[in-house]
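Dear V.,

Thank you for sending over the compound details. I've combined the ligand you provided, LXCWX6NK, with the protein sequence from our construct and run the structure prediction for the complex. I'm sharing the raw inputs here so there's no ambiguity about protonation or stereochemistry in the SMILES, which I know was a concern on your side last time.
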Amino acid sequence: MAEGLRSELTRVLDFEKEARKKLSDFAWHFFSRRRDAGQTYQDNLDAFKRYRLIPCNLRDVSIRDTTVTVLGTRLDFPIAIAPTAMQRLAHPDAELATAKGAAAMNTGMVLSSWANLSLEEVAEATPRGVRWFYLLFFKDRRLTRHMLDRAQRAGYTAVVLTVDQPSFSFSRHEKPNLPPVPVRYPNAYYAGDPVGLVGTVEVEEHLRATVKVPGTWEDVEWVRKNTELPVVLKGILSVEDAKTAVQLGVDAVYVSNHGGRQMDGLPATIDVLPDIVRAVGGKAEVYLDGGIRTGTDVLKALALGARCVFIGRPVLWGLAHNGAEGVQQVLQILKDELSVAMARAGCAKISDIQPSLVVHQSYYGITTRKAVPMSKY
Ligand SMILES: Cc1cc2nc3c(=O)[nH]c(=O)nc-3n(C[C@H](O)[C@H](O)[C@H](O)COP(=O)(O)O)c2cc1C
Ligand SMILES: CCCCCCC(=O)C(=O)O
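Below is the predicted structure of the protein with LXCWX6NK bound, written out as structure tokens.
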């Protein structure tokens, strides 16, 4: 671990415990939230353990190179930050701290449209960072275009469209998921007010009127044709969707089940990854998130065809623990663990990580059945 980042917390899950101590009840429950019984959330974690690693020994792995190129940009390691809403709930520096932590590690960050700071504020604080922007679908396409232009002008280098949210928690049939205190969403608001929205009722009304749910393939096509930025589709789980995405010319397919927050009963992302990689057939980059907590999780995802993985909650735990430095610590732990795992697996560089490194436990006749705990959330 880099000097200055020494900590008693040596594993990513240590940060979860620390975050619990620091976060308000609302923030803790919002971040931990999982849909219904939490089966998908839990399966994201358990599924990684169902894959076994078969190392190749006696190779020279004394020097490891974890660098990777993602959408043409070089990252020091293939672990980046997934978009997560409302980071002010974790730390007063909110998305600024996350961006600084990512930039310090030379990896990428996706800024959420539900960020509490404007995309320009985040960009100004980390001019050399690698930043992508998660864009909402808006009913008014002039607003979509306005946000695309803002993101590009501020130096964001890709647009991420989240396609697994055909409804939001603020839709009428669900309990609102908005914080009890006034918040700013300067990237979700229009009408030229730079402060953004405050107040729960106002937010809900505005969002119902403005945000287009569900987005459709037509919206994806429109965005692709109306921006020079590469387009990433986040939330793909089916082969059919992956094929359509490729046909529409998207640049990357991002396998995600929204960390189990959107719908329960979905498969673990690592389990669907090989089929998606096959369907994409090298015509777009493939990413994955959901349940990544260790370097061996990352190694398995890369072996099964992901070019890069993203982490959601672990970053929020690091942020809650210690702002930008906490985010950096979480990333450093995963980077170090990946490097060690690569050495033990016989891989000196990322391209040495091949599918033959991973075998599903069913190959050995092992069929673990684990009870799914009922969620407390
Ligand atoms: C508190 C929270 C807020 C999130 N907000 C967004 C969001 O604004 N947009 C989005 O596409 N995904 C959002 N996600 C999903 C993450 O991008 C990611 O898919 C998920 O957290 C990955 O699982 P992990 O937390 O196990 O790493 C959110 C997740 C959490 C935990
Ligand atoms: C009104 C704000 C809704 C934010 C939804 C963010 C999200 O994707 C999540 O999983 O939470």
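A first observation: Confidence is low (pLDDT under 50) at residues 371-377.

Warm regards,
I. M.
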